[in-house]
Design a protein that fits this description.
Radius of gyration: 19 Å
Strand order of the largest sheet: 1-15-6-5-2-3-4
Strand content: 25-35%
Distance between the termini: 6 Å
Low-confidence stretches: none
Number of strands: 15
Mean pLDDT: 89
Number of helices: 9
Largest sheet: 7 strands, mixed
Helix content: 25-40%
């Protein structure tokens, strides 16, 4: 595994691309899901695989725009809401098509996959890693979340409909052991609170992103991060056996190490980890669970998203090259 996530201007994207690459992306209601596709050199893409979920009008429009970029060199996967089994089937179908086409290089735009979809995709790519020469992940950071709304009133989702184990990461839960819940929180206090109530763990670790310029994808996130960190830490007063930890929202390796450290220090527990921050930190969670199959990963499904004002796209992307030999 490489030691760092590299930040580059989105205009420099094609400098990391090679010919005959498979491009994997997710069309969503966010404008950010268009950024990488619109800047990519289509001549370098052998085939594009476009995932999407809802039949929301914004999603439909985005999917049509992405498909138009790649025309007949694309395959669409429309995943029904709350159907992770179908997404798993589609991810394996994608992997088979890539192999059948003799494509050895993959570029994955992780920006707007749901946490659950991204973790399932990561698991499939890991299981099929011997088929590829390289896998690159790219992430378009948000310039601002919930733009033009004061920090204390920003919201990305509301409620927590249910909590379910992510396919491919069942963990090894021993009935006689107590539960240890590790959450990497972001701007969704209500969703995190609902998750904690549903799981009701014996030990709780709340991870908050480091609020320093070197650790965030945009300095405009620092204000709301501090606001939501205070809200998340208020949970300390309402529960026993709660601890907090810091992690980098943009660095995979350091976040992975943080998770492994907590798991190592609480060996007598069943470990449940839930990523609710950036997709970069979600990759770190997935890789930690691939390294240690005893970890169970869960997904907290929200009641609704802020479809109309979720984010505005930034002008840079984070790039990570996955070392398939580890």
């Amino acid at each position: 595994m490489n030691n760092e996530t590299v930040k580059i201007p989105v205009s420099s994207l094609n400098g990391i691309l090679k010919s005959n690459t498979a491009f994997v992306t997710c069309a969503s209601f966010e404008e950010r899901s268009l950024v990488v596709a619109q800047h990519i050199n289509v001549e370098l893409i052998a085939h594009a695989f476009i995932f999407s979920t809802d039949s929301n009008q914004k999603v439909i429009e985005t999917r049509e725009k992405v498909t138009a970029i790649f025309c007949d060199r694309s395959t669409e996967y429309l995943i029904p809401p709350n159907d992770p089994f179908y997404h798993l089937k589609c991810a394996y179908d994608m992997a088979q098509k890539i192999n059948d086409c003799g494509i050895k290089k993959i570029l994955v735009d992780i920006t707007t996959f749901t946490h659950e979809m991204l973790l399932i995709l990561l698991n499939v790519l890991w299981r099929k890693k011997d088929m590829y020469a390289s896998i690159e992940f790219v992430y378009t950071g948000a310039k601002e979340y919930c733009p033009d709304v004061i920090d204390s009133r920003k919201w990305l989702s509301k409620g927590c409909k249910e909590v379910r184990s992510v396919l491919g990461y069942p963990g090894l839960l021993v009935p006689k052991k107590q539960s240890c819940l590790i959450i990497l929180v972001g701007f969704e206090h209500e969703r995190a609170s609902g998750l904690i109530d549903m799981v009701d763990p014996d030990q709780l670790f709340i991870g908050c992103g480091i609020t320093q310029s070197a650790y965030v994808t945009s300095e405009m996130h620092i204000g709301p991060m501090k606001e939501f960190e205070a809200m998340h830490k208020s949970l300390l007063a309402s529960r026993a056996n709660v601890s907090t930890f810091d992690f980098s929202a943009k660095d995979i390796v350091s976040t992975l190490v943080s998770i492994e450290r907590i798991v190592g220090e609480t060996k007598g527990y069943n470990h449940i980890v839930v990523p609710m921050n950036t997709k970069i930190s979600t990759l770190a969670v997935g890789m930690a669970a691939l390294n240690d199959p005893s970890i169970q990963l869960c997904y907290a499904e929200p009641e609704t998203y802020n479809f109309d004002n979720y984010s505005s796209p930034g002008d840079s992307i984070l790039c990570y090259s996955w070392d398939l030999n580890k």
